[in-house]
């Protein structure tokens, strides 16, 4: 959103430089109780919103930006005000309002230069709540979907790289939640339920940082279930990809302690992964 950023910077700089000459008093006095907001131009209301934003009054700024959109929907200031409304609500931490404004911008102005930023703000409205959702991962999935939109629809935008990094972190977060539940089951002796969680990580989140531990936990769970072929195969995949890790050393110790070796055995789901990924046998 190069244009909007530049405009924000220019207005903020002008107001900051003019404060000693009464810019701040003019804005505050001009929007007093005796002056209905309808009596001001789109630009004047927009500048007031910028003034509020520059002074960390984000909610007030968002409301002024909304007034620009309401009173002057067909002006050149309306699309700028709408995307800035989304930004102000996001700064305020009101993610639902930020998301609504960003989505409205995308619906009305899908082909403008600020569309990538609106999509990015939409993604952030989900992403910035990930740590607050506990075991409910609905917002994480929505963040991934919205971030993917930024990456795929606007790959050349200045927001694509940041979206990729956040996508990877959100993806890792989902895998971490699966690991958390799997460890819970494992500690309580629910080995089959634990194995199912770790299997999800290996199959669906194999590019995350949790894969080595997931493979090791599969060795633990399958040995506890007496499924030695699955345990050996998990150990073989772990050894092939992460031989220098502590997880492999622990798995190797577990297997050899049972008189077993980490090697692909049987015709199970892990053996299929071993054949496909390590031996290149896709058929």
Features:
elongated, 14 helices, 72% helix, 283 residues, mainly alpha
Describe this structure in words.
The structure is a single chain. The protein has 283 residues and is an all-alpha fold. It has a domain at 1-92. It has 14 helices and no strands. α7 runs antiparallel to α8 (138-153). It is a lipid-anchor.
Q: Which value, in Å, is the CA radius of gyration?
A: 27 Å
Helix count, DSSP H or I runs of 4 or more residues: 14
Low-pLDDT stretches are 1-30
Secondary-structure element sequence?
HHHHHHHHHHHHHH
Task: Give a short summary of the structure.
Part of the outer membrane protein assembly complex, which is involved in assembly and insertion of beta-barrel proteins into the outer membrane. The chain contains 14 helices and no strands.
Helix/strand layout:
Elements: H1 2-18, H2 23-30, H3 42-54, H4 58-71, H5 77-92, H6 95-108, H7 115-127, H8 138-153, H9 160-187, H10 191-204, H11 211-225, H12 228-242, H13 246-257, H14 269-278
Helix pairs in contact: 1-3, 3-4, 3-5, 4-5, 5-6, 5-7, 6-7, 7-8, 8-9, 9-10, 10-11, 11-12, 11-13, 12-13, 12-14
